[in-house]
Amino acid sequence: MATKKSPFSGLDRNKTLAENTVNAAPVVLDSNVKVASPDGTGFSHGALNVSLAGATYDDHLSIAEVGGITLGTDSSDRTIAFYEGEQIGTVIAGPGGLTVLLGEPVDDAAMTALARAVAYSYTGDTPPTTPRTVTFRADQDEATGSIVSTMKLKLKAEADAPAVSNFGPVSSHTPAAAGAGVVIDGDMSVVDPDGIGFKGGKLVVHMDGAMAEDNFYLSPGPFSITGNKLYLDGKVVGSVSGTGAAGRDLAITFKGNAAISDGQMTALAEQVSYRSTAPVSDSASRHVTFTFTDAQKASTSAQVTLTFDNEAPAFLASGPSGGMSLVSVGFRGQGGDRGSEHPVVSPDGNKVAFRSYASNLADAPTPMPQASGQIFVKDLETGSVTLVSSNSAGAVGNSGPADTIVFSADSTKVAFVSTASDLVDGDTNEATDIFVKDLATGTTSRISADAAGGQANSWSHTPVFSADGTKIAFVSGASNLVAGDTNGRADLFIKDLATGEMTRISSDGAGAGFAGSPANAVFSPDGSKIAFIAFAGEVTPGILSPSSVYVKDLDTGEVALVSGLSSPENVVLFSPDGTKVAFLSDPWSVIPGAPHSSAQLFVKDLATGELTLVSADATGVMGNGLTSGSFAFSPDGTRMVFTSASSNLVPGDSEGLSDIFIKDLITGAITRVAQSSTGQSFNPTFSPDGAYLVFASGASNLVAGDNNGQADVFMLPLAASSVTSSTLTEDAAKTTLTAIGTLYYADRDTGDTHSVVVAPASDTLGTVTAKVVSDRDGAGAVVWTYTVDEAKVEPLSAGETRTETFTLILSDGYGGTASQDVTVALSGSGEASPRSQLSPVRRRIRGFPRGITAIYGRPSPRASWGHTMNSGAFSLCSRRGFQPSAARIRREDKQRRLRTLAGEVWPGRARISSQASQNPWTPSWTISRIL
Predict the structure, then answer these.
(1) Matching PANTHER family, A to Z (predicted)?
(2) d(CA 497, CA 516)
């Protein structure tokens, strides 16, 4: 086929287009070209072909809808070209080429319009800098041939604005996160299309309507800001003219010689974070604009909306469930290279402290002493492990072992015992001391020093924090902690952490020091009393057991005997409500006539004197093995966990190993947990919400991958049910009635801090108090306590029931709440408790000698009732409307002989009468009333 050489008339031979123009949309190449058939007959079944030399996939030729040319599609989705409404051909476009096949003969006007509609676009970032040839060829028909013409097309490179992708449009967070700080957009991409980068460029971050509480900052990453300088990996690469603080823009300018790549600008933008210094309300939003300027001063802006949507918490039917987890691992998940033991859970439930001989759990400035147990704290939220038995610089002590772990009430401090001499300056006493580690600051302080800071001249051990965390009690053999300590024995001291004041409390009600040494003290939950263990005869004469449990009232100084023990090497523990004391002892020391046996776990009710054997099976049969180690009450006081070698507490216990048991103190049911045949389990304790059991074990099959061959610390979910109701039956032997329950909750906003209140209730016989006992990672627990109001209770007849409902409201601090009703049913027995029938009118009997213990009984006619006293006088209350005619008092002295005090008269018609004591080991006065 022959080719005609005559050109298209009017075609622009040299065409220059701006890069940004063809980036935006296709541009017509020539709107003035004219095409004429050589013989004037038009174009019959020919074609229009346009091609670009050196074309790439970024070069595109197309037909624009201009000058009477329109486009459509046929049934096969092919693009059809029309001229003045008449179909003229099919458009076929490919990379760098374009063909319009003419289906019908067209005249010169239609072909001219088609040539003038040829358009070009470029989708790349860096266009070619040299001109390229565009060839136009019009095929008339196979017989006549084609006409051809060319133009030189040049693209003029222009500064492209940075391109931002994967940005916004919304970045959602919780209100709690706003206070902690949030990354605005952590997965965006910023690119300079020209490939030059951001040398000398800028980043400005602006918030619409910003207030003083709105702050921008850089989260940790390769870039950092110090003063007005921007650093990249420690090198200054720019300046900061806007700090982003207190409602101001964050404005950063890069140095002209700092080559900042697309990836580095992206990394900087992803570090930009927001924090509010004021509470952010639910559904609050912030509009933030990022403006990027590249090396050629081209700019682009992108906006994201920060939203803070709150989700309300919800009460659950039960606590968390799931598998057992290993606690004594390092922050990288590595198992300890030596054993770990004695776990203690912080009061907020977020940490576990334990003693470990491992050298690889936490990094320390100095090597760990070999075979020296040290104290560590595992943060359950972050997984970090902190060495606690270290000096203020973090260096481990120069000797060990460290021992006796106890948290402060706010979980910010840990007290421990150590023989190290380099934990604080000036430790030259070569004795065991008590230290406190501040977990926030890292500061280590020595507590076993006098009020002026002078070090003790002998050992100190077994520290315990008071309920409010302001004091520490401990036992010391030192004689120089207080003035006048000349008894030559160990004493029990209380140190005021705020003032430094040191007080010796190992004295009886008259202030006389004990004849022997106390041990293992513990504060009551309200801080008003302290329980301890001492050798027999040191406090109360005539006690036959080798040692005894005592409770001292820190307000009155009175000391009361709780029980005899079989060994002074023991611990004592208050129940959560302070009404009971738990301890280990041989049964013969606490139960008259009981045979000698292995140590067992007992609970003594301090009000009624009732003694409960805990280490027994569900029917009350005593365990046949030793109960040893630590034990603990559940937070609601309804369960106890302990370790026992007994094989008869539950069916099928045939491994011959010590196991961990949980005893229900209400039903008597007992359960064995953490069963294993590969090692002993020990040191159990509850988490503050009662949802987890934390313990140590030498077993290797409790969790997968436990192959270190050492004892480890574990955490086991108990899947306890939420308690929403309780039934109480009046008991004349009890001085008050209480019920305790635990409610579990969850919150999708894992950073929220929760609080609980009890909605006001009217016409109730008791009150409910509640507190959040754990709050971590969007889960927690509330413990509620119902207490009968003794001023309101009247005796209920047998079978009579009074049901009271209270509403607990849990708040997340951002407007989200959840409500839960708890009900308490009071069931009458026909007799009320002593206090329930007592009048507020009091009468005083004076002149009583020290050391008196009187016993309460039923307040029915002719029944005995009384009051414990140790300091020379006490008050008695009469039944409402009751006038006693007489009362007499007798005493059983330490020789167990009865003596009657004469001449003691109670004002009114009262006399003092003799009444037999029920405890032959306890010298007692008993007051009887007679109608």
Answers:
(1) PROTEIN TOLB, PROTEIN TOLB HOMOLOG
(2) 27
The 3-state DSSP class for residue 274 equals strand
- CB within 8 A of 560, min separation 6: which ones? 550, 551, 552, 553, 606, 853, 868, 870
Domain boundaries, the chain: 3-156, 163-308, 725-827, 838-931
**pLDDT value, residue 894:** 36
| 3-state secondary structure (DSSP) of residue 588 | helix
Strand partners, 2: none
Q: Which pair of tokens denotes residue 616?
A: 């027994």
Instruction: Report how far residue 196's alpha carbon sits from residue 707's, in angstroms, rounded to the nearest whole number.
Output: 55
In this chain, the answer to whether the domains covering 3-156 and 163-308 adopt an identical fold is yes
625 vs 597: CA distance, rounded Å: 8
If you count them, how many residues does the chain have?
931
Contact 686, 632 (CB under 8 A): yes
Instruction: Supply the pLDDT for residue 9.
Output: 87
Profile the chain (931 residues) by mean pLDDT over runs of 10 residues.
Answer: 60 86 86 87 87 92 94 93 93 90 89 94 83 92 79 84 90 85 92 88 94 94 94 94 93 93 95 90 83 92 90 90 87 84 92 91 65 87 90 87 88 95 94 95 96 94 92 95 88 93 78 66 89 65 58 85 62 87 83 77 86 93 88 91 94 87 92 81 91 91 85 90 86 68 90 92 90 87 87 68 93 91 84 38 32 32 34 34 34 35 34 34 34 23
By C-alpha distance, which of 47, 33, 50, 51 is closest to 144? 47
Helices within 230-348 (DSSP H only): 262-271
Backbone angles phi, psi at 587, to 5 degrees: -55, -35
Alpha-carbon gap, residue 67 to 645, rounded angstroms: 100
DSSP 186-231: SS-EEE-TTS---TT-EEEEEETT--TTEEEEEPSSSEEEETTEEE
The whole-number pLDDT of residue 365 equals 54
* 769 vs 790: CA distance, rounded Å: 16
Find how far residue 655's CA is from the centre of its chain: 37
Closest by CA to 565, choosing from 541, 612, 599, is 599
CB 811, CB 817: distance < 8 Å? yes
Q: Are 928 and 858 contacting, i.e. CB atoms less than 8 angstroms apart?
A: no
pTM attached to this predicted model: 0.62
**CA 415/CA 629 separation, integer angstroms:** 20
Beta strands at 403-407 and 385-387: parallel, antiparallel or unpaired:
unpaired
CA distance 69 to 60: 19
Q: Give CATH for domain 3-156.
A: 2.60.40.10
Peptide bond into 169 cis (omega under 30): yes
Neighbours of 850 (CB within 10 A): 14
Enter the tokens of residue 647.
Answer: 């094989």
pLDDT at 370: 57
**d(C-alpha 237, C-alpha 5), whole Å:** 61
3-state helix, strand, coil in the chain (%, to 5): 5, 45, 55
Encoded amino acid at 485, one letter:
D
* Main-chain dihedrals φ then ψ at residue 588, nearest 5 degrees: -65, -20
Q: Could you tell me the two tokens for 416?
A: 């421990």
User: Can you read off the two tokens belonging to residue 212?
Assistant: 């003083």
CA 884 to chain centroid, in Å, comes to: 58
Q: 181 by DSSP, 3-state: which?
A: coil
CB 577 within 8 A of CB 740: yes
- By the 8 A CB rule, do 834 and 810 touch? no
Distance of CA 284 to the CA centre of its chain: 25
State in words which class domain 163-308 has.
mainly beta
725-827 fold? Immunoglobulin-like (2.60.40)
Strands of the sheet with 471-476, listed across from one edge: 460-465, 471-476, 491-496, 502-504
Question: Is there a contact between 603 and 623 (Cβ–Cβ < 8 Å)?
Answer: no
